[in-house]
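Appendix B, example 12.
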Amino acid sequence: MTTTRVLTQRTIGSPGVLEVAHVPVPSPGPGDVLVRVLATGMNPADWKVRTGKVDFFGPPPFVLGHEFSGTVERAGEGVTRFASGDEVYGWTTPPHGSHADHVVVAEDRVAPKPRTLDHVGSAALPISGFTAYQALVTLSDVQPGQRVLVHGAAGGVGHLGVQIAKALGAYVIGTASAAKHAYLRELGADELIDYTVEDFSALRDIDAVLDTISNDYGPRSLATLKPGGILVDVVGVGVDRTEVTARAAELGVRFVEFFLNPTPAVLTAFAALVDHHGVRPTIAETLPLEQAAKAHELSETGRVRGKIVLVP
């Protein structure tokens, strides 16, 4: 095979700018692996890049996508952790987008995929799952019996955050519309707040807040925290957080703007948690690469329950 398919765009714009193109199969450099992508996850960052709201990839043309699951086809010079045929999952950094049949990725951006998930399930984890895991484990150090508040609990990061917090032994409170409460109880949420009619800021004695919404949710969440508690904002871009930073300092709580940085150790530890505690991503939709425009339209609504996965 000398060519492979990629999902690309030559201009910023609507979902209609997306197209599938044939390009030469990339070659892994030193320290890289070439992965045959069997499934690749969608994230809000994808449509934000497509529309020019964020600039992760520079000017088009480029290949979108940040997460994948597949098999190693070839290892580059110096690679010691992987060989041809290994099943892996991981994340990519520009210019190597994962919405393609093949992707070249640095060895330290992949790990053996969870044993208990197929490739579609594994591809839904690298961005949302690592985000929730690092926020709750690495930063918040959630302990059994602590109270954790998850905003946007039914979303891509939120629904995994609920499961991870429960696996850590926490009492989990989630904010979501009433229509999603039954679903979140099935995932393990202990208490749910319908943000359309209830004010979550009346809560108290929260140890950790996982904020996937940002905007005014940060300032409103600070009063819920006990002294020494932590608010982790995982949105990353787009909101001025000056107010929440200053207010957190006044209240004696921690506020952290989180940026994803998965390491091989974190990828491996998260896969173990998935396998040992039955953490499962909810797959909202599985679509072929050729229907990426539909996937973007769904993601852009902001009402997707769980994750959208593209299958090359």
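Residues 264-277 form the longest helix (14 residues). The domain at 3-126+262-311 is CATH 3.90.180.10 (Quinone Oxidoreductase; Chain A, domain 1).
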